[in-house]
Recover the amino acids of this structure.
C-alpha cells in the first residue's frame, strides 16, 4: 500500500525485486551457502565504504555487540563499562554476560547520546571502556569525548547499529572507536534481513573476533603467527579443532552477504533521501508541541524522531497521541531505541536492584522513555506524504 497515508509502516521498500533476483541468480549456481567467499567480499566492500581496515560479518548487530565485549573479556578480567541509559538491550546484556559491571550515564536531548558532564563523573580507575550508542542516525561523538577517552586511556566502542553513514567532523562514525558495530536488521539503513558487522583498524581485534565468531576456533584466524602459537602449545590437539576462547557460533551465510553486497550499492543514495525527508519532517513539525532542536550535523536518519515538548509531557496527551496514530495506522515505537530507559527493563532492574528513584535520576532518558517515539522514514517517501503525516501529528 505504497504512499497510502493511512498505512504508514516502520519500513516499506528496503528489499526490492532486484535484490531478490541477485539472491536467486547466486543460488542457481549451487555454491557453498555457509560463510564463504561472498561473506569475505561483503566484509571488504563494507570496510572500504566505512573507511576501516577490517570487518567481520555476523548474524546480527547484537552478536556484534556480544563479540566486542567478549574481545574485551579476553584482555581484561573485570572492570566497569560505561553505557548510556538509552541504548539497545544487547549493549548491556553483553556486558552482563561477560561479567563486567555496566555503569549508566544519562543522555543529551539534542543528540540522544551519552552526556559529557555525566560521563566525566562516572569514570574511575576501574573503567575499562565506554560503549557509546549513536541513536537514530544522530552523531553521538564530540571532540571532548574523544579527548577524554584518550587522556584517561579508556577504550571507546561505538554502537552504530542505528546510524550507518552518520559523520563526526566529516569522518564516518564507526571509525573513531577501537571497535564499532553495525546492524543490518530488516528496518535499518540497509538490510541483510538479519545481520551485523564488527569493524576495526586493529589486526588483533580482527583476528580474535574472527575466532570468536566461529566457536573460538583457531583455524578461523588469518594470522599464521596465532595458529603456530596454539599448535605448538597444544600438541595433543587436532589443529583443526583448537578452541582458543569460550565462544559462540554467530556466523551468517552467503545468501545474507549477497543481499548486503547489493544493498550497499544503494546505501549513499538512500541516506541522502532519508536525511532530506527528516529535515522536511522537522521543518513541518509543530515546534510548540514537539522538540526539534536536534544537532543534525553529520546525521544519517532512518526513522523520524518525535519527542513531546515540556507542556505536553503528560499521560493524557500521550494517550491521545497513541490513539490517533493507531487510528490512522501510523506504526510507531514509544521510547525510541530499545524502548527507552534500559535501567527499567527486568533484565537490568532485577539483577542490579534499581528502583523508581534510580530511574528518575536519568532525567533526559526518562523524557524519551515516556514521551519519545519514532516512526518510519524510508527512501521512497514523498514530501506530500510527510506533509500529511505532520498534519496528523500537529493536529493532535
Ligand atoms: C542501537 C542498537 N544496537 C544494537 C541493536 C541490535 O541489532 P540487531 O537487531 O541486529 O541484533 C539494535 C537493534 O535494532 C540497535 O538499535
Amino acid at each position: 500500500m505504497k504512499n497510502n497515508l493511512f498505512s504508514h509502516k516502520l519500513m516499506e521498500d528496503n528489499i526490492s525485486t532486484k535484490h531478490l533476483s541477485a539472491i536467486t541468480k547466486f543460488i542457481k549456481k549451487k555454491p557453498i551457502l555457509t560463510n564463504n567467499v561472498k561473506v569475505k567480499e561483503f566484509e571488504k566492500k563494507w570496510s572500504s565504504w566505512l573507511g576501516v581496515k577490517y570487518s567481520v560479518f555476523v548474524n546480527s548487530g547484537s552478536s556484534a555487540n556480544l563479540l566486542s565485549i567478549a574481545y574485551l573479556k579476553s584482555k581484561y578480567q573485570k572492570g566497569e563499562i560505561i553505557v548510556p541509559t538509552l541504548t539497545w538491550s544487547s549493549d548491556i546484556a553483553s556486558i552482563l554476560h561477560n561479567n563486567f559491571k555496566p555503569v549508566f550515564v544519562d543522555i543529551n536531548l539534542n543528540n540522544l547520546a551519552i552526556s559529557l558532564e555525566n560521563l566525566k563523573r562516572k569514570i574511575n580507575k576501574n573503567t575499562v571502556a565506554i560503549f557509546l550508542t549513536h541513536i537514530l542516525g544522530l552523531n553521538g561523538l564530540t571532540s571532548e569525548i574523544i579527548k577524554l577517552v584518550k587522556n584517561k586511556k579508556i577504550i571507546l566502542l561505538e554502537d552504530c547499529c542505528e546510524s550507518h553513514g552518520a559523520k563526526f567532523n566529516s569522518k564516518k562514525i564507526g571509525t573513531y572507536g577501537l571497535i564499532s558495530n553495525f546492524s543490518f536488521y530488516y528496518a535499518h539503513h540497509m538490510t541483510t534481513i538479519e545481520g551485523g558487522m564488527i569493524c576495526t583498524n586493529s589486526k588483533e581485534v580482527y583476528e580474535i573476533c574472527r575466532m570468536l565468531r566461529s566457536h573460538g576456533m583457531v583455524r578461523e584466524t588469518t594470522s599464521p603467527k596465532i595458529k603456530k602459537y596454539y599448535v605448538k602449545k597444544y600438541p595433543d590437539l587436532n589443529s583443526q579443532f583448537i578452541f582458543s576462547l569460550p565462544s559462540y557460533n554467530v556466523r551468517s551465510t552467503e545468501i545474507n552477504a549477497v543481499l548486503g553486497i547489493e544493498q550497499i550499492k544503494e546505501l549513499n543514495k538512500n541516506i541522502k533521501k532519508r536525511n532530506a525527508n527528516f529535515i522536511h519532517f522537522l521543518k513541518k513539525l509543530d515546534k510548540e508541541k514537539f522538540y526539534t532542536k536536534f544537532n543534525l550535523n553529520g546525521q544519517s536518519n532512518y526513522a523520524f524522531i518525535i519527542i513531546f515538548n515540556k507542556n505536553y509531557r503528560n499521560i493524557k496527551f500521550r494517550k491521545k497521541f497513541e490513539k490517533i496514530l493507531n487510528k490512522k495506522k501510523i506504526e510507531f515505537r514509544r521510547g525510541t531505541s530499545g524502548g527507552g530507559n534500559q535501567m527499567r527493563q527486568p533484565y537490568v532492574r532485577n539483577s542490579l536492584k534499581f528502583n523508581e528513584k534510580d530511574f528518575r535520576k536519568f532525567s533526559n532518558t526518562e523524557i524519551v522513555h515516556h514521551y519519545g517515539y519514532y516512526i518510519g522514514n524510508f527512501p521512497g517517501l514523498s514530501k506530500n506524504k510527510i506533509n500529511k503525516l505532520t498534519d496528523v501529528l500537529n493536529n493532535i
Observations:
- The chain has a mean pLDDT of 96.
- The pocket of pyridoxal-5'-phosphate is lined by residues 60-62, 65, 87-88, 90-91, 133, 159, 161-162, 183, 185, 196, 337 (CB under 6 Å).
- Residues 254-284 form the longest helix (31 residues).
